[in-house]
Amino acid sequence: MTLSLPDDLAREITETARQRQQSPEDLLRQVWQHYRAAADTPTTPAQVRQRVYARARAYWQAHGVTDLLQLTDADLDAQFAFIDAGGVPHLKADAVNTPTTPLEGLLGVLDTDATDLSAAVSDTLHRHFRGNDDRPD
């Protein structure tokens, strides 16, 4: 099969492939794979929940937990808690605490009313380094 492209697009693809030291065909395959992966990414909370529930159901199916397989998405909306790092789904009724991550441990560490924490961190770093080196930058 042959695909015709406008000259400007063909030049751009060829130049980008040359810069990346790969063939135009490999570049297009890579771009297509990225596009397909992005198209499969859930974009709404409902789509995310459906994927999580599908993972939970696959786990329950594989482990013979047939009573939980009967739960509808609406049931799970009310009862589902999380899937742990081991891939085990938990319901709220399981009374299992959600594990904390190192990033969650940082919550509340910065004592600031700033709504843009990147600016607060930047200001803190500027003050710290300005004080240590007596440099204005």
Structure commentary:
With 137 residues, the protein is mainly alpha-helical. It is built from six helices and two strands, in the order H-H-H-H-H-E-E-H. A two-stranded antiparallel ribbon has the order 1-2. A hairpin with a 5-residue loop joins strand 1 and strand 2. The N and C termini lie far apart (59 Å).
Average pLDDT score: 83
Beta-strand fraction estimate: 5-15%
Q: Alpha-carbon distance between the termini? A: 59 Å
Number of strand segments:
2
Uncertain residue segments: none
The strand line-up of the biggest sheet is 1-2
Using the alpha-carbon principal axes, give the shape: flat
Radius of gyration: 25 Å
Question: What's the order of the H and E elements?
Answer: HHHHHEEH
The number of helices is: 6
Oligomer status: single chain
Main sheet specs = 2 strands, antiparallel
Portion of residues in helices?
40-55%
Q: Please identify the structural class as seen in this structure.
A: mainly alpha
Q: Which short descriptors sum up this protein?
A:
two-stranded antiparallel ribbon; 137 residues; flat; 5% strand; mainly alpha; 6 helices
Secondary-structure blueprint of this entry?
Layout: H1 7-19, H2 24-39, H3 45-62, H4 66-69, H5 73-79, E1 80-83, E2 89-91, H6 117-133
